[in-house]
């Protein structure tokens, strides 16, 4: 595991309107989440507690339920049973309005970046601010000068200030994911859910993007739950590794002290049947 390079003063975390809680209260608190799609049980009684500023990596074979868990946590999927609280807001049974409000504080980073290709990088970053604005915006000039400066600052932070006025779809995959990270920062989230953020990138760019993503999350004291397929990146970056197998949690341990072999146990027993363990 990498050394943390940023001092992290811990202050009590409170959702708006909530009574003061302890700094030790979990930011993500999921209990017994079960999710089925027809006959397929994607998640089976999953418990997960994540504390403020923790960087947690979620591993498991393809189809083990990783994306479903992320989506249940921000309400994109309803859960069949169980409950989850994120930033003090119950997700189960939440209204559409409550979920939209929660999602303004939960950044989501996608494997395929989800940028608007025909828009400039700067405008894509500005889109991250829409959750704190009223009404739609069309064009960079429809945002305030202060917001444009802020967005430029985030582009600079990810090393792409010189691409601000370039169309997003003219950038490489690694650069596009860096713009997506800047857009997430512009959102000013407290939690980041990242679903295989480097799966579309070559190993060199995967390392660069992971480096950047986790460094800015540390600096901003963000709480991160990130799915990955690369065990080595998980061991390098995660403070804790959670493993899913067939929708059930089979590992949940701090990275420190975990060996690659320990982690490969997540895959090994199924690999006998499926022969599809990762390299
Ligand atoms: N919208 C859906 N409709 C039907 N089945 C789904 C849906 N989403 C997921 N599933 C099923 O739920 C199971 C878990 O899928 P999920 O995408 O969460 O796995 P994953 O671990 O994220 O896989 P990958 O690593 O390939 O992204 C799979 O069997 C999948 O086919």
From TrEMBL:
CDD domains: ABC_PhnC_transporter. Pfam families: ABC_tran (PF00005). InterPro entries: AAA+_ATPase, ABC_transporter-like_ATP-bd, ABC_transporter-like_CS, ABC_transpr_PhnC, MetN_ABC_transporter-like, P-loop_NTPase. Keywords: ATP-binding, Cell membrane, Membrane, Nucleotide-binding, Translocase, Transport. GO terms for molecular function: ATP binding. Signal peptide: none annotated. It comes from the Bacteria. NCBIfam families: ABC_phnC. This is Phosphonate ABC transporter ATP-binding protein. It comes from Saxibacter everestensis. The gene is phnC.
């Amino acid at each position: 595991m990498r050394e943390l390079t940023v001092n992290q003063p811990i202050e009590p975390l409170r959702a708006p309107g909530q009574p003061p809680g302890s700094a030790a209260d979990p930011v993500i608190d999921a209990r017994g989440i079960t999710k089925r799609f027809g006959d397929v049980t994607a998640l089976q009684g999953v418990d997960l507690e994540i504390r403020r500023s923790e960087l947690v990596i979620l591993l498991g074979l393809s189809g083990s339920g990783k994306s479903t868990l992320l989506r249940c946590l921000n309400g994109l999927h309803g859960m069949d049973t169980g409950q989850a609280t994120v930033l003090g807001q119950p997700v189960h049974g939440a209204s559409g309005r409550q979920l939209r409000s929660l999602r303004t504080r939960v950044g989501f980073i996608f494997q395929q970046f989800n940028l608007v290709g025909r828009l400039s990088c700067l405008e894509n970053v500005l889109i991250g601010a829409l959750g704190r604005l009223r009404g739609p915006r069309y064009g960079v000039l429809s945002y305030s000068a202060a917001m444009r400066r802020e967005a430029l600052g985030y582009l600079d932070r990810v090393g792409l200030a010189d691409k601000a006025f370039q169309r997003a779809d003219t950038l490489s995959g690694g650069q596009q994911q860096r713009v997506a990270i800047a857009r997430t920062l512009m959102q000013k989230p407290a939690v980041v859910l990242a679903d295989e953020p480097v799966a579309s990138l070559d190993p060199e760019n995967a390392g660069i993007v992971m480096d950047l993503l986790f460094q800015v999350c540390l600096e901003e004291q963000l709480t991160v739950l990130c799915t990955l397929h690369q065990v080595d990146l998980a061991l390098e970056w995660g403070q804790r590794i959670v493993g899913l197998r067939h929708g059930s949690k089979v590992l949940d341990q701090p990275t420190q002290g975990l060996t690659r072999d320990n982690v490969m146990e997540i895959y090994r027993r199924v690999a006998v049947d499926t022969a599809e363990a990762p390299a």
